[in-house]
Design a protein that fits this description.
Layout (H helix, E strand, L loop, with lengths): L4 H10 L8 H24 L4 H15 L11 H35 L8 H15 L3 H12 L3 H25 L4 H8 L4 H37 L5 H10 L3 H35 L2
Helix pairs in contact: 4-7, 4-9, 4-10, 5-7, 6-7, 7-9, 8-9, 9-10, 9-11, 10-11
Length: 285
């Protein structure tokens, strides 16, 4: 039964408090909004936010952006080959780091999956290990490995690999836990061993998910490899940092454009791979 507008107004006149929020709830909302606004104003004050500073910064930003077009074109092959070498090195760092991380994480993921590892203490300990590894930012790991192994791509590869061990192991174990038990029961009913249950019952279900995770993280690691190069872990980031330090913004923007193009190509190719492999798998279910 629906009420008319006149009936609602009559009820509002009889019991006005029923149409308002309780006083405690209103005070709580006021306190939360006051805290939020106060925290925002405090952050602006601490970070020295001012209209003058923003205006000056926008002018400098416009000067930097003015070097974007027309793009800088390298006039000699030795100069351009150095850039191509840096791009290839960044790509190699991302590929090797992703691959090594996946190789180490894959067996660890089974120890963290509750449908595989029934020992709660061991499983929880392994999962906390995932969290500890993921707590370290890739850039911090790169600085540590640069200190240990020196400048160069090796530090970047190890930084990405160690970082991805925690990420891959967590994502792989979650994918394993979300698999259906029906294929496993079928293999078990036919007399399959525990290894065969994993090989033929679980692996076909998680392989497409694992492939998708690997491709996505590889794309992300290409971008991370650029940042690692800035701190000395090899790759195109070192050349980009060098051009920015020398105020050669025209060359820096051209390098950035090449990085964007490389990431776009990798994203396009990984999309094709996902569509072909995962699509074929879905069509056979």
């Amino acid at each position: 039964m629906s009420l008319t507008h006149a009936q609602i107004e009559q009820a509002r006149a009889r019991v006005p408090r029923a149409f308002h929020l309780p006083l405690t709830l209103r005070l709580r909302r006021i306190a939360l909004w006051t805290l939020f606004v106060g925290l925002m104003l405090y952050c602006l004050w601490v970070f020295n936010f001012s209209p003058t500073r923003i205006w000056i910064g926008l002018g400098r930003l416009g000067h930097v952006l003015g070097f974007m077009f027309p793009p800088y074109i390298w006039k000699s092959w030795p100069e351009f080959s150095e850039i191509l070498k840096g791009l290839g090195e960044t790509l190699s760092i991302a590929f090797m780091g992703t691959l090594l991380g996946a190789i180490v994480a894959f067996p660890l993921s089974f120890l963290g999956a509750k449908n595989i590892n029934r020992l709660n203490g061991l499983r929880l300990g392994v999962r906390r290990g995932y969290d500890i590894i993921r707590a370290f930012e890739t850039l911090i790991l790169a600085l540590i490995f640069i200190r240990a192994f020196g400048l160069g791509p090796l530090a970047g590869i190890l930084a990405i690999a160690v970082s991805e061990v925690g990420t891959f192991a967590k994502l792989f174990s979650e994918a394993i836990e979300n698999t259906s038990t029906k294929p496993i029961d079928g293999v078990k009913a036919s007399g399959g061993t525990r290894f065969q249950q994993i090989r033929f019952g679980i692996a076909p279900q998680v392989n497409p998910v694992i492939l998708s995770i690997l491709l996505y993280n590889f794309e992300s690691n290409v971008r991370s490899g650029t940042i690692l190069g800035i701190v000395g872990a090899g790759g195109i980031g070192f050349l980009l940092s060098d051009r920015i330090s020398a105020y050669k913004w025209d060359e820096a923007w051209s390098i950035i454009f090449l990085i964007i193009a490389m990431v776009y190509v990798i994203d396009h190719l990984s999309g094709i791979i996902r569509a072909r492999i995962i699509g074929d798998w879905e069509g056979t279910k």
